[in-house]
Amino acid sequence: MQVTYDFSSKNVLLIGGTTGIGRATALAFAKAGAELFVAGIGQEKGDSLKREIVDAGGVCEFAEVDVRDPKAMRALHERAFERFGRIDVAFNNAGVPGKTAPVHELDDDDYSLLMDVNLKGIFHGLRHQVPHMIEQGGGAIVNTSSLFGVMGFATTAVYCASKWGVIGLTNSVALEVARKNIRVNAIAPGSVMTPLLQGMFGSEQGAKDTVLPLIPMGRISDPAEIAQLVLFLSSDASSFITGQAVVIDGGGFVAGADQL
Ligand SMILES: NC(=O)c1ccc[n+]([C@@H]2O[C@H](COP(=O)([O-])OP(=O)(O)OC[C@H]3O[C@@H](n4cnc5c(N)ncnc54)[C@H](O)[C@@H]3O)[C@@H](O)[C@H]2O)c1
Q1: N or C: which end of the chain has fewer CB within 10 A?
Q2: Catalytic entry in 91, 159, 164, 201
Q3: Pocket lined around ligand 1, Cβ cut-off 6 Å
């Protein structure tokens, strides 16, 4: 089932959109009438996403940008603001799985990669999105955390730390702009079958072997299901929701330690 949202006349900046959840969300926004500026790593995949949206009659720009690079992030936002005049929705979704190993087997570079992409990358986006939305009188921001942003998981300690950080950032910024007609929320997905999940657990089969036993609903989510939550949190249907991290995980969190 797909709920129909109306994002016609809305402009969306989606960072981390070349594959997985971001790509599915870009397609869902385009289907709902939004005009998109997408960024991420992977020029070819970005171009193919842009083609798919444009061929279907939509509007999409793509720029390859590394969220760790503050200058490139500034330039991305300037380009997006200039292209569309205003950005109504920002979806900060870029993320990497990093190395899956016990904490004592991680080095400084492993730590920096996770924190710089998953947490600092969102900071680099918020710094430009917030003043823009204050100036234009409103907007909605959605940041991607994780189920691993509300629980711990052995062998993903720094990934978890980065995703807990995303929720702290989200909650606090939501309070900073609560009276400015800007809502800031996070999504906290459980397992979604994407390149990142496969990277985290070695392969598609490795991911299934590790996470399926932990999911009460007995399946791994499809990225399109996560996209529906992002559209909800970006739309007026969620007009009184801010500062939340919405878990979308087939029941894994509430099952808790019983499953482990
Ligand atoms: N797949 C899951 O089970 C799951 C669960 C919870 C949260 N998440 C989060 O969802 C988000 C999307 O991941 P996904 O599962 O769709 O995986 P994915 O690998 O398909 O997508 C990751 C996206 O981030 C972008 N990206 C990575 N490094 C970047 C960088 N340095 N600069 C700019 N963009 C960069 C990639 O281009 C891609 O668009 C991530 O933040 C991830 O942590 C995923």
Answers
A1: N
A2: 159
A3: 16-22, 40-42, 65-68, 93-96, 117, 144, 146, 189, 191-192, 194-197
